[in-house]
Amino acid sequence: MRTIHDTLEPIEPSAARELFLKHKATDVGENTVQSYAYRTDHFVRWCDENDIDNMNDLSGRDLQEYRLWRQEEGDLKKITLHQQMSTIRVFLKWCGSIEAVPADLYEKVMVPRVRPEQERNDETLEAEKAEAILDHLAKFHYASREHAVFMLLWETGIRIGAANALDISDVDVEEKQINLVHRPNQGTRLKNGRGGERPIAISTELAEMLEDYIDYTRPEKTDEYDREPLLSTSQGRMARATMRRLIYRTTAPCFRGSPVLTVLRGAQGSVASL
């Protein structure tokens, strides 16, 4: 007796992800593809850690276990988990179309519901608007503090408090990751204390932009503990309230109405201020 799995074609999670991203690159923008890449990277990592080397073997129970793992491992807000699980649902629906998983598996992805008032309270952005803002920042405000704050928060989904706690030494450009570290005795805490400490993978684009921000734009200031904050001002470590104001200004419609060219990457990868 034939089962639904008899019609599936074996494929590793990483291979399915690469095919998915190549497919998406044909009909969406580069920044959207990068968002898909970041969110599906966690899923591939989870599969590897749980010895799932064939997409055919995924079940609804696996998807529930992944959801719980992602929420705990990432310390995600409900709206961020909603966005990330929505991406996994899109990924698995596409996988069903190429017979990598059962065609209805995507329906078993449990996407947390978010009430409209929660979206407003968390300043939720539609992906299309966020990508338009990123494109504008990359073109007219490359490696500015607005670009650094917005892209960092949008791509990683970390809290403002976690971004505020980052030092330059926590950014590993070569390994393409940032490291969240709980330093309660030096003025910065993570919401979950030591349990919130973890490395977070970032895209090549974000790594390069942060490197340029550090080298060319970031005010060279230390805080009261002689630490070098990643996000700084002329006074030292950037305050959380300042970060929120930057986000409000960057997402306001008028922000893209009057572009001011700040820093651009040159043709050979160098950076020049204009």
UniProtKB/TrEMBL annotation:
Keyword set, alphabetical order: DNA integration, DNA recombination, DNA-binding
Metal-binding is among the record's keywords: no
InterPro entries registered for this protein in UniProt: CB, DNA_brk_join_enz, Integrase-like_cat_sf, Integrase_catalytic, Integrase_recombinase_N, Integrase_SAM-like_N, Tyrosine_recombinase_XerCD
Gene3D superfamilies: 1.10.150.130, Intergrase catalytic core
Gene Ontology BP terms: DNA integration; DNA recombination
Positions of the Core-binding (CB) domain: 11-96
Chain ranges of the Tyr recombinase domain: 120-274
Keyword DNA-binding: yes
GO molecular function, one term: DNA binding
Protein name (Swiss-Prot/TrEMBL): Tyrosine-type recombinase/integrase
Species: Halovenus salina
